[in-house]
Amino acid sequence: MAERLSPPARIARAWADIPLTRKGLVVVAVPLVILIGALVTLYRASNAEAQAESEVRRAFSIQRDVYQVHALLAEAASGVRGFLLTDQERFLEPYWKADRELPATLARLDLAIQDRGVREAYEVFLTQADKKRVSLDRLLDLGRQAGERQAGGRQAGGRPGAPSGLPPEILDLLVVNKADLDDLRRQIDVIQLREGRLLDARQVRVERVRQQFLLQTAVSAVVGVLGSLLAVYLFSTGIVRRVHALEGNAERLQKGEPLAAFPPAFDEIGRLARKLDRASALLRQRESALRESEERFRLVVERVRDYGIFALTPQGEVATWNTGAERIKGWSADEILGQHFGRFYPEETRDFLPGQMLARARRDGSAEDEGWRIRKDGSRFWANVIITALRNDEGELRGFAKVTRDITERKQSEEALRVAREEAIAANLAKSSFLSRTSHELRTPMSAIIGFAQMLELDHDQLPERHQKAVGQILKAARHLLSLINDLLDISSIEAGGEEMNIETAELNDILTEAHGLSAPIVKAAGLRFDLQLPETPLALACDRRRAIQIILNLVTNAAKYNRQGAFVRLAARADGARAIIEVSDDGPGIAPGDAPRLFTPFDRLGGERQKGVEGSGLGLALSKRLVKSMDGEIGFEPNRAAGRGSVFWFSLPRAPSPAQAAIEKPSGEEPTP
Question: Is-contact 180 131, C-beta < 8 A?
Fold first, then answer.
């Protein structure tokens, strides 16, 4: 059944479920919105007050300009009367001033007056002002005409001076002009009365706006304070208080105490609180598993029989003892607990080796040693010992763990293997010595046989035909046996380490060309085509030139010897990084996959049993492999996939550095070899 909550509780729950990002936006937005609203209110109130004050100033301006129009017209009328009475132009200065300033003043009034009633009174006022100006202009014209007539009378004999009187029409016009000025003054009173009423209303409005402005300012301040308090409250209830509760739970978790109840929420803090609860439960579960594991481990250690596993105090005294330690060393737990582990060492190492082992473990974390140890019955056994320092979380030494293994049988096996290896090496040396002596012993009679056979061959024409064939067979067999003896000498010399390689820089093209020339007759005698493919870029090798040619001759001879159904033998080379690859390929029967592992084995003639009449000792490939390795190279075999049949024998030799590289790699101060 769902939990029934009060409205405030539902609001608090909903607030707690909001993510922290949105809460932060709310906390920031509430006072910000209140501030913006207060600023807008203040701005509108300020504008209203400014507008009201502007209307008041406009009313004062209208009153001032209306009085200014009346004053200008009154002064202009007074100046015109003075001119009419004196006929002097200086009295017209007010008239000219009114003529200059009236248009601008009337224009200001026309823009400033916006009230309809004032505008109607102003229209009447404007008509009267125009009538007054026209009347003044008429008086001025009549006065000038009268002055001209008087000036003519004086020229006819009249008396100069001020006019004795004004014409009746001017006097009548002056009376009308004064009446117009009085009407204008009365109309001004009407305008001022109406503007005064408007001014009073505007001043009341200004005061009302000012009071509203003060009230809105106070309301904005109160709302701002309340909004800030609300934001602080929301921040406190939504984040700070729960963070403090979460911090308290973290401290309880660190101390291993149960966590306090945390209010349910689905924001980041709520999720973190739930994860903290799960971590607490998992930690308690793991602690219980750990205790069970420690108990099981203790039981397992106690039952281990092949290893002696026990603990030592920081001083080296035995603190625990398992079944394996009892089986290996002979002491029971009651007999050895509390004893120093140095008693397991023989007398010759007991005084120093146990202390050294503990010091090494204390310094490096662990120490390992192999040597003789003592059993309870005094017998010795060869032991492998590992001592590990045990420290707490603060790095303080709590003791040591010691693991002992009896490896006496392994030690005896290693000793037996060492003796067997030494015997095998001695036998191999004896074999090499035997081969060397035998080869030398066979060379002497073989040289005699070849010599006498060659002497008989010189008398070839004098011998019967059957004797000629016999001499040829003797020479052929003797030369074959001599080649076998030479191969045996080479192999025995290399195995004995007596064959020194003359490593020098040699051009690969020269080696290939020379080897091709030497082996061409052999390939030709087999009825095969002999192709030579030199690399496009000249390459220099670091090798024994004579031995490199010997290897090529061995490979080409084998290719020609066993290729009875094919058409060619090919000698080629290419660069491969820091090495050069030399290949001898053919299109003969090839090597069966099952026979490939037997390649390069001495005296193993692959294919010889299938092809009758093919001579060989089975030493050529074995000798070539040893020569290649002596020159820091590799040799191998693969099927000739390009031709679809046949074999490819290859070997690699290191390339010699170029002269520029040799100069760079040469130590400073050392002159290059000429």
Answer: yes
Query: What is the distance between the alpha carbons of residues 439 and 483, in angstroms, rounded to a whole number?
Result: 11
- Among candidate residues 366, 385, 406, the one where a domain is terminated: 406
DSSP 295-322: HHHHHHHHH--SEEEEEE-TTSBB----
Residue 556 located in a structural domain: yes
529-533 and 568-576 strand pairing: parallel
**Distance from C-alpha of 156 to C-alpha of 152, rounded to nearest angstrom:** 6
Tokens, residue 329: 């060393």
Q: What kind and span of H or E run contains 270?
A: helix 268-303
In angstroms, the Cα distances linking 266 to 18, 273, 274, 355, 545 are 7, 10, 9, 60, 84
For residue 357, is it within any domain?
A: yes
At 85, which CATH number?
1.20.120.1730
Tens of pLDDT, residue by residue over 201-243, are 777 777 777 777 777 777 777 777 777 776 666 666 667 777 7
Eight-class DSSP state of 266: -
What are the backbone angles phi and psi of residue 114, rounded to the nearest 5°? -120, -25
Contact present, 365 and 388 (Cβ < 8 Å): yes
**Range of the structural domain that residue 583 is part of:** 501-662
CATH of the domain at 575: 3.30.565.10
Residues 73 and 132: beta-carbon distance below 8 Å = yes
Tell me, what DSSP letter sits at residue 598?
A: G
Q: How many domains does the chain have?
A: 4
CB atoms within 10 A of CB 175: 10
28: phi > 0 → left, psi -120 to 50 → alpha, else beta; which?
alpha
Q: Strand pairing of 634-639 and 647-654?
A: antiparallel
* Residues 107-143: tens digit of each pLDDT: 888 888 877 877 887 788 778 788 778 888 887 788 7
With respect to residue 290, please indicate whether it lies within any of the assigned structural domains.
no
Residues 625 and 650 in one domain: yes
For residues 327 and 421, membership in a common domain is answered with no
Q: Is residue 486 part of a domain?
A: no
Contact predicate 382/413, CB 8 Å: no
User: Do residues 385 and 366 make contact, with C-beta atoms less than 8 angstroms apart?
Assistant: no
First to last CA, the chain: 103
Say what the pTM is. Answer: 0.35
Q: Are residues 134 and 173 in the same domain?
A: yes
How many distinct helices (H) and strands (E) make up the chain?
A: 17, 11
Residue 362: give its domain's CATH number.
3.30.450.20
Residues 393 and 431 in one domain: no
By the 10 Å C-beta count (0-12 exposed, 13-18 middle, 19+ buried), 347 is classed as: exposed
Distance CA 587, CA 321 (A): 74
Q: Are residues 341 and 471 in the same domain?
A: no
